[in-house]
Specification:
seven-stranded mixed sheet; single chain; alpha/beta; 22% strand; globular; two-stranded antiparallel ribbon; D-Maltodextrin-Binding Protein, domain 2; Arc Repressor Mutant, subunit A
Length: 307
């Protein structure tokens, strides 16, 4: 047998995601490249590792056993790399962070220089909705989580990073020279919500409740990107975090509509379970952010202050 570490990593990712498409996205490879490496790996065995039924891939029992062995091999390789770096006095280890979906526009900027400084740290960042982020945190599956609405039913500690601002947003076909009552907007077109479990939706619903507003027509979409495309197409209006619409504002595809009581303001915070024993990697990140967050905000989010 003559399989490569790259083939092992690709096969394991396919097993974990149950999908060539998802594996290619997470590995940042093209689907054809992943499929070719999977075929090259499978060709070295007389027994099938996977089978295709329709367009869905299934892992055979033999493939599942091989995946367990592959995971052990990769863990050993990572351990060798970590020990080598540690022997040189470099920081090593895994750093697991769960991020609410809109936080993907925030967290990478606070991680970029840290990861360059500490090349021996292996980062795993899961981007999902607020409910799943908090579930990962309380189950101890991640070291840290980025949220804009801290939980009230879990004891946590936190480090504030950046203010979160949510505005009423729509396409640019109509101009608004002065503030307009939001109830007039709600009569014009459907109001677009995120899915249940989204922090953005939670803030939208609280705003509606606090202002005793009724939504006449409603749409529900399951991602920030889907909401943006719907707004650009003129399907309605929505309350969205400013952090996620920078390019659309600059390109004049979307506009902020002036409305009394907006923006809604919260804070992007990195949170962890109270009393948690941090790994060397997560401890080093928190120390770095406490010292550097002001510089990062000034350098990466200067545009943010004009709104």
């Amino acid at each position: 047998m003559n399989y490569t570490l790259n083939q092992l990593q690709i096969f394991l990712k396919i097993v974990q995601t149950q999908s060539i498409t998802k594996a290619s996205e997470e590995l940042q490879l093209t689907q054809p490249a992943v499929s070719i490496q999977l075929k090259n790996f499978q060709d070295q065995f007389d027994i099938p590792l996977t089978e295709m039924i329709g367009r869905k891939i299934f892992i055979t029992d033999f493939g599942k056993e091989i995946a367990v062995a592959v995971e052990d091999i990769i863990d050993q390789v990572n351990a060798i790399n970590s020990k080598t770096l540690a022997y040189k006095g470099l920081l090593t280890g895994k750093l697991k962070i769960s991020v609410v979906s809109t936080g993907k526009y925030v967290m990478p900027h606070f991680l970029a220089d840290f990861m360059k400084i500490h090349a021996g740290v292996e980062l795993s960042m899961d981007v999902t909705n607020k409910n799943k982020v908090l579930e990962s945190l309380t189950n101890g599956e991640v070291d840290l989580a980025l949220v804009s609405i801290p939980p009230t039913n879990v004891q946590i500690e936190k480090l504030d990073l950046l203010q979160n601002k949510l505005f009423l947003v729509g396409d640019t076909k109509e101009s608004f020279s002065k503030p307009i009552p939001i109830k007039d907007i709600l009569k014009k077109a459907p109001f677009i919500y995120r899915e249940n479990g989204s922090g953005t939706r939670q803030l939208m619903e609280k705003y509606m409740e606090d202002n005793k507003l009724s939504v006449f027509k409603k749409m529900e979409l399951t991602s920030n990107e889907a909401v943006k495309q719907a707004l650009i197409a003129g399907l309605g209006y929505s309350i969205m975090p400013l952090i996620g619409i920078r390019n659309e504002l600059f390109n004049k595809e979307l506009q902020i509509i002036p409305v009394k009581g907006l923006p809604i303001k919260t804070t992007w915070s990195l949170i962890w379970l109270k009393g948690k024993n941090h790994s060397p990697a997560s401890s080093a990140l928190l120390t770095y952010l406490k010292e550097s967050k002001s510089d990062i905000v000034r350098e990466k989010f200067n545009w943010y202050e004009q709104y």
